[in-house]
Write a structure and sequence with these properties.
Largest sheet: none
Order of helices and strands: HHH
Number of helices: 3
Mean pLDDT: 74
Low-confidence stretches: none
Length: 108
């Protein structure tokens, strides 16, 4: 049999939030403060959106840079800025998944 008291912390953890108790003594959710800020999503520029869908973008595990042979020597792999290259990039071509062709398209 396993010791269940090893799983329970010896001291209760204080999160710093005030805990309200119901009349029965059970804890309720922490009170909402007016000072608690909700993170606002930062709007992404059109250049970054275009870069994210460009076929010349490196795979995410390699990093954020353009792999096109004419852009890479100038922009490099470190510190790529999409706004400098992507708004009117002549090499941009949207990534797309190929559509499955119908059997009638094979006319060998």
């Amino acid at each position: 049999m396993m010791d269940d008291d090893k799983l329970v912390p010896a001291q209760p953890v204080d999160s710093g939030d005030p805990v309200l108790e119901s009349p029965a003594g059970t804890p309720l959710a922490p009170a909402a403060d007016a000072t608690t800020a909700v993170p606002v999503p930062v709007p992404v520029s059109a250049a970054v959106e275009k870069f994210k869908s460009c076929r010349w973008r490196a795979s995410p595990e390699d990093g954020e840079f353009c792999t096109h042979r004419d852009v890479l020597p100038f922009s490099g792999k470190e510190g790529f800025v999409a706004e400098s290259w992507c708004p009117d990039c002549a090499f941009y071509k949207l990534r797309r998944t190929p559509k499955k062709r119908e059997r009638v398209d094979y006319t060998y």
